[in-house]
Structure formats: C-alpha cells, structure tokens
Model the fold of this input.
Amino acid sequence: MFYACLVSSHLNATTISVADFYKQLCAILGVSDKGGKTGMFQAIQQQITYLYKEKRQPLLLAIDEAQYLGTGILNDIKMLMNYGYDSVNYFTLILCGESHLNDTLRKPVHEALRQRITVHYNYAGLSDEEVSKYILHELNLAGAADSIIDPAALAATHSFTQGNPRLIDNLMTDALTLGSQQNKQIIDAEIIRAAVDNQGLY
Done:
C-alpha cells in the first residue's frame, strides 16, 4: 500500500511489479505514466523537484507491506532517492513491513539504500497491560462494560497474539461471536482458546 502527503493510494505489495510501482507513483503525483519506465522515472523526478522547489511541499511517501517489494523496486527506489538531488532530500520515504524487511535490507545488493535510512524502528507489539486497555477501550466504544471479559481472557489474548493489534481484533471478534452463540455472559479464557483454535493461532 502507498500513502502520500498529496493523495492517498493503496496497493497490494504482494503482487506489484516494477511497472506497477511506477504507475502507482505517477498516479499519486498526478503525472503521466506514458513513455515506459524511463519516461515515468523522468516525470516522477521532475514532479518531486517541482513540489520541493516551487510548491514547498516535499513528498512524504509511505509504502506498507514493504517486505514484499522485490529487488527491482528497491533498486529503483534507491535511484529515485539519489537522482539529481545533490545533498538535499527532496522527499521522505517510510518503509513499513514485517520484521523480515530488515533481513531484505541487510542483503549486500541493498547496501546503498540501507545507508540512506536514518531512522529504524522495530515494533514489538503491545504489552500485557496495553492489550487489556486496548480491548476494554474497544468494548467500551461498542457500548459494552468491562465486566463482559474476565482478566484471564485478557491475559490469554496477549499470550496468543503477542500484542499484535490486527490479531487481537480478529481474535476478539471471533471470541465475541462464539460467546454469543453459546449464550455466555462473560468472555473467559476458554472462549479465547476456542477462538484461537478457529483462528489457527498457535
């Protein structure tokens, strides 16, 4: 998925090709995607320069699921960051992805790109306490009381999800559905374990 300061756009990075990457970036920047890779590269470079120099709007580009980006795209990202900008950073790039994105960037072929990365942040997931607060907050937003789920269920949720918010959401949706089907008044650890079985979280 791509996000930009001018236009928001989403892209499934699991299937993206180099041509798709350029076309998506052209769409985000509002420039023509004609002329093949060379034409698109020049149009993108010119628009980034224009935004920085004339509009005073440096581009902030975030790529989600970046662990799926291939070597070709990562090499072209490096070229875009290096091309014709001297020592000035005309745009900021944020690569977001799962932990094995680090493994990809450590490969020798990506040494030049890795050297341009100034900030690294590794997200380790929510703590046990944060998971409990998150779940109770979401339940309260839905109009439910804290008493609908017991402490053991909250602890089990953290244990099985390792604090991953997406997994927490999926697990709690399943647990609430199971609890409703079984006419449970309180979501307990047993319901959480049943939801874990449904989700395949082991």
User: Anything to note?
Assistant: The first helix runs from residue 18 to 29. The mean pLDDT is 87.
